[in-house]
TrEMBL record:
Source superkingdom: Bacteria
Species this protein is from: Desulfobacula phenolica
InterPro entries per the UniProt record, alphabetical: Homeodomain-like_sf, HTH_AraC, HTH_AraC-typ_CS, PchR_regulatory_protein, Tscrpt_reg_AraC-type_HTH
Domain annotation HTH araC/xylS-type: ranges: 215-313
Xref: SUPFAM superfamilies: Homeodomain-like
UniProt GO molecular function: DNA-binding transcription factor activity; sequence-specific DNA binding
Keywords: DNA-binding, Transcription, Transcription regulation
Keyword tRNA-binding: no
Pfam families linked to this entry: HTH_18
Protein name as annotated: AraC-type DNA-binding protein
Length: 323
């Protein structure tokens, strides 16, 4: 799989933004970083890649704030996270990553549109000064470690995000307009966190033993893709009831155990297809699918092309290299 190291260019005359253009050889689009007031940074990513690619952050620094995925499915693996997690369309998140150096993301063929709001912890604290002390205590504790709390993009958030992406203004007017929408998004996320999670902050973060069980469950799911355990068997293996495991797994990874297994099966299938040593039917069975038609359907939904075409492209590329 192709791997790209992302390093924002420092050779720019505009101190208010940086732009990373996706090289034409691997795709189209860009990642724009806009520096706003109060130390807030807005990251707007909109790109499509020609082939599944690993993007790696080549810059060290903290990343704390909110994220919104408007299109695409991304497998993310921040430093200090034992397991990777998936970010998908319609998902928002509150996160803290103490160091971004080495942060990797696996991007498929689907167009990716994401908006992130990054800020310093001190600035975040200023926004929540009027919240209960218990809220502040939880905030400070989680900010010192790698943390991600996924949620959904609400309808008001969709509206503000759309206005940022389709801002009709330019120059300073654009900056003021976008800054207003960023403040809206922060307010919507704070309200969402307060209502849905922070009224019971002791329940908002998994206990260490729960997190260990979830990580163990993820390893069991992907250890043998052809014979992966069902949810009941999986729950029994990690010492949880089925509903508890499902709840904790979704909270930790942002997706259900079924989705986690499906994504890993499809990623494994893509790797085998790229090797070109097995046919589509053999690969489908190898990664745990008993129905070839179902495998072809979900593969195309996930990667944007049928497995047969992916295999054909891999074989064609291999033949060209041998010439």
């Amino acid at each position: 799989m192709k791997k790209i190291l992302l390093i924002p260019s420092t050779q720019t005359n505009n101190k208010e933004k940086n732009l990373i253009n996706i090289p034409p050889s691997i795709g189209t689009g860009s990642i724009e970083i806009i520096h706003l007031n109060y130390g807030i940074r807005l990251v707007i990513a909109d790109y499509s890649l020609n082939q599944p690619t690993i993007l790696e952050c080549g810059v060290s620094g903290t990343s704390f704030g909110f994220g919104f995925c408007l299109s695409g499915t991304i497998e993310s693996h921040p430093p200090y996270f034992k397991e990777s997690f998936f970010v998908k369309k319609g998902q928002s998140g509150f996160f803290s990553f103490p160091d971004t150096l080495g942060y990797t993301e696996i991007i498929g063929l689907e167009r990716v549109i994401r908006i992130s709001i990054l800020m310093d912890l001190d600035q975040m604290s200023a926004f929540v000064m009027e919240y209960p002390d218990q809220f502040m205590s939880v905030l400070i504790n989680i900010s010192e470690t790698s943390f991600r709390f996924p949620d959904m993009i609400s309808q008001p958030m969709w509206g503000a995000l759309d206005k940022i992406l389709h801002c009709p203004y330019h120059g300073l007017t654009r900056k003021f307009f976008i800054e207003g929408k960023v403040m809206e998004l922060i307010a919507y996320k704070m309200e969402q966190l307060e209502i849905e999670n922070w009224q019971n902050p002791e329940e908002s973060v998994l206990a260490p033993n729960e997190a260990d069980c979830v990580c163990h469950a993820a390893r069991l799911l992907t250890h043998d893709l052809e014979n992966a355990p069902g949810l009941i068997e999986l729950a029994r293996s990690v010492g949880m009831c089925r509903s508890k495991l499902h709840h904790c797994f979704c909270k930790f990874h942002g997706i259900s155990p079924f989705e986690y297994l499906r994504n890993h099966r499809l990623e494994a299938a893509r790797r085998l297809l790229n090797e070109g040593k097995m046919n589509v039917t053999e690969i489908a069975y190898k990664v745990g699918y008993r129905s070839l038609s179902h495998f072809s359907k979900v593969f195309k939904q996930y990667f944007g092309c049928p497995p047969g075409k992916c295999l054909k492209n891999a074989v064609s590329l291999s033949n060209r290299r041998l010439r």
